[in-house]
Amino acid sequence: MASRTRSRTNEPTPTLESQNLLREPETEICSFNNADIAPSNDSGAFPAGVIIRPFDREVRSDAVSNEWVCFLAYPFSLGLRYPFPTFISRFFELKGLSYAQTMPMVWRVLMVLDQIKSRHIPDLCVKDLPIAYRLRSHGNSRFLLFCTSKNPLILKATKNEDQWQRKFFFVQRDSIVKGFDLPVGWLTSGRI
Length: 192
Prior knowledge:
- The protein is of the alpha+beta class.
- It has helices spanning 34-45, 74-77, 86-95, 104-119, and strands at 3-5, 17-18, 50-52, 63-64, 68-72, 133-137, 143-147, 168-172.
- The chain has a two-stranded parallel sheet. A two-stranded antiparallel ribbon has the order 2-4.
- The model has no long low-confidence stretch (mean pLDDT 86).
């Protein structure tokens, strides 16, 4: 098996602290439990040896910890694997966003732009993004890419996914590449 879930009885699981950024935290109870995580990871979403925190109904996606980092299930449903492609990773490095803060359309746009970069425009970089999109807060400190023109570069990217914010899990930082470089807390400024 490619991953393991830390046992609650054998090893202590450090507490995750909520940032209290979610307006209605009771509506964002995780629906992605231990049984959902294993098949997702067995598909190669993470390298071998990754440690996934056991499901905890009380923990929300805005929880912070120096030991754990939150991942949404959504990017993996698109076929992405961690570590994410360089273009996508660079976006998160430059913007300082937590993965759990980004709405599905951000992942779709970044994935398409990564494909455009790899197939057609090798010198495309994240700093070119403001030509077509601006990052904006969409409430609850979640972010989307707002199209800056009437004619979007990528069509149908704004389609939302039901319950995407309720499908998340935590991975131990020291079990993944550059885990300690990922943001600990959510970014809370309105525009980036």
